[in-house]
Amino acid sequence: MFDTLTDSFKNAIGKIRFHDDEKALKKATAELKKSLLKADVHHKVVKDLISDVERETKKNGVGKETFLKALQEKLTDILTIEGAPKGFTFASKPPTVVLMIGLQGSGKTTTTGKLAYFLKEQKKKKVLIIAADLQRLAAVEQLRQITEQIGVDLVADEKATPTQIVKEGLEKAQKELYDVVLIDTAGRLAIDEELMEELAEVKAVAKPDELFYVADAMTGQDAVRTAQTFKEKIGITGVILTKFDGDAKGGVALGLSQQVGAPLRFIGAGEKMPDLEQFIPDRIVSRLMGAGDVESLAEKAAAAIDPKEAKRMTQKIKKGQFNFNDFLDQMEQMKKLGSMKSIMGMIPGMGAMAKQIGDMDLENSDEIRMIKAMVASMTPKERENPDLLNNTRKRRIAQGAGLDQMQVNRVLKQFKNAAKMAKKLSGKGGMKQMQDLMKQMQGGGGFPGMPR
Ligand SMILES: Nc1nc2c(ncn2[C@@H]2O[C@H](COP(=O)(O)OP(=O)(O)O)[C@@H](O)[C@H]2O)c(=O)[nH]1
Ligand SMILES: [Mg+2]
Question: What is the CATH number of domain 299-442?
Fold first, then answer.
């Protein structure tokens, strides 16, 4: 995420020389301007940003430090709407009611699921979803599948009207003490009066604490314009930008809050449930300036990883007892953190590696699939103790997994090496070794286990 933008900032920063004069500053801002426009940031936002950064830098004496400070301040300024909450905030009296609105196909239903997943897994909340899109029969079915997958309750009734189902859902939420209620609504291909009336009625009944406008990032500046219209006609408290993974440029995210006058609150970057990230201005600025976003990463990890379990695992690794069952458990935990690329992007200095990894899919890489097939063909004892695997057993496993014996040998060797490496890293001086390893990987050579 934000690759193009981060690169633009890095380039511009690199253009400021140590013996600084206004010429160097001009060169840097010209570079920044060019690349921001190329990334699709709105021209007014760019003009405003450049002139403010120039003025502030000059005021404090031209130099790399002053330039960076001015840029950081201005970016935070652009992304921040005064008085707007940082991250998701809960109503003082539960349930917190959230209305999801937007055009058809923008990603409302998917994002409703993602948001529910985020609130359940990261915030440990009891979440109820109301299906108030009764335009299309398939819409309710889609939501039913999503809620089953993530284990969240759903209120739906194909024969009710949107306001009826919302009333019914809210009553249930009151009675059964839900923390959050998310309401998925119908969209249209374009803005029309009938839709606006329906949404206004639903809004009157739901009395939402949050009104999220869901916008498709791939529609560029159109996303901004429709958000403006919905803000005028219905009123919104925030925007969620979806399909950010398909928008290579990413500049819309930078100008959106200022242009719409409502904060960008979340970004969706993928079709899976964990692919939703909070948009918190200072953290995003930190990432744009190449400093990573350790806070978000720590939050995600803390929510996904059970500390007791983590301790048990570390002990096993230290004793060299890491086995196939542990491996599968770890894979499950990793999945909750989201895509590998988004995780890497949050670690300072790892942006370049994130790019290399591309969209490596933890679940579906060839290696992982082979290991899963092999584990499925093992007896419980073999899963617990990889050392049991002699040639006879390996042959049986290869057959069961539909692999040849060379493949099985290769995977076993990799697994043992990985366990050895983990044991080493968990000991003293492990962090330093880890850094060396990362450096090696960044200097070409690829990432071990990466699909070729
Ligand atoms: N790649 C990608 N696809 C998404 C994202 N969000 C939604 N989609 C896809 O966009 C399509 C429309 O989404 P849906 O939630 O049904 O839109 P709705 O009509 O607004 O409810 C579906 O195929 C989703 O899988 C995203 O962040 N990234
Ligand atoms: Mg929908």
Answer: 1.10.260.30
